[in-house]
Design brief:
- The chain is built from eight helices and eight strands.
- By secondary structure, the chain is of the alpha/beta class.
- The chain has one domain: P-loop containing nucleotide triphosphate hydrolases (Rossmann fold).
- The strands form two sheets. Strands 6-1-7-8 form a four-stranded parallel β-sheet, with helices on both faces.
- Strand 4 and strand 5 form a beta hairpin.
- The longest helix is centred in the last third of the chain and has 21 residues.
- It is globular.
- The termini are close together.
- Bound molecules: adenosine-5'-triphosphate (ATP) and the ligand Nc1nc2c(ncn2[C@@H]2O[C@H](COP(=O)(O)O)[C@@H](O)[C@H]2O)c(=O)[nH]1.
- Ligand LQESDW3C binds next to strand 4, strand 5 and helix 4.
């Protein structure tokens, strides 16, 4: 079977990480762990949620792509992707839309793009506060150019991405289950 990676994108707070955990637990799909210089949040662990880097250690890595997001650096490597593919033909990662565009260019059909959205953007700020993000961090993030950009699927990805609506967790899970089960059925008949 062709190896593929689900690339989950969308604005901050739409639920990308929650979806990644859900499909990891329910379908045993391994997560590609990426690298960041941002401070760890409560409950996060190094090597599990991210490889947490200093600016100096970040610079030493060889990335497939790297971006700046709300003042911090993020990067993903081919090595990380291959590690996940060694466990399963289908892996999952969480990227901003700029990273999604690079994955599409570099990996073609091996990048299965999922773009997550909500009907009411005000909901996102509430979710960040509920997650425990401090006021300063939330303000910085929602005022960033990257946040505003990721509120919309980029033109380059139009027609190339699955669009999921996460207004309600139960309905979101049904959309995710539908996509995964359809992909399993396609794999059986290919
Ligand atoms: N449908 C939903 N209804 C209510 N809360 C939700 C829903 N989906 C996710 N959440 C909650 O919203 C918060 C943000 O979710 P999550 O961390 O998955 O978002 P994210 O897109 O990964 O954000 P970021 O890009 O900032 O890391 C979490 O506390 C999560 O539990
Ligand atoms: N292009 C990349 N984007 C990445 C990578 N790792 C995470 N991300 C995205 O950054 C923002 C902020 O993440 P957060 O954990 O601080 O909320 C979010 O959109 C992630 O999807 C990466 O390696 N490359």
């Amino acid at each position: 079977m062709q190896k593929r990676v689900i690339v989950i994108m969308g604005a901050t707070g739409v639920g990308k990480t929650s979806i990644c955990s859900y499909i990891g637990e329910k379908y045993n799909i391994p997560q590609v762990i990426t690298h960041t210089t941002r401070p760890m949040r409560d409950g996060e662990a190094d090597g599990v949620d991210y490889y947490f880097e200093t600016p100096a250690s970040f610079k030493e890595k060889h990335f497939l792509e790297s971006v700046s997001y709300a003042g911090n650096s993020y990067g993903s490597s081919m090595e990380g992707l291959k590690k996940a593919w060694a466990k399963s033909d289908l892996a999952v990662t969480v990227l901003d839309t700029k990273g999604g565009i690079t994955y599409k260019e570099e990996l073609g059909d091996q990048a299965w793009l999922w773009y997550v959205t909500v009907s009411d953007q005000k909901e996102l700020v509430e979710r960040l506060h509920e997650r425990g993000d401090g006021d300063v961090a939330v303000e910085k993030r929602i005022n960033s150019a990257e946040f505003k950009r990721d509120l919309k699927l980029p033109e380059e990805l139009e027609g190339n991405a699955e669009v999921l609506l996460n207004d309600d967790w139960k309905s979101l899970k049904a959309q995710v289950d539908g996509l995964i089960n359809q992909s399993k059925a396609n794999a059986r008949f290919s």
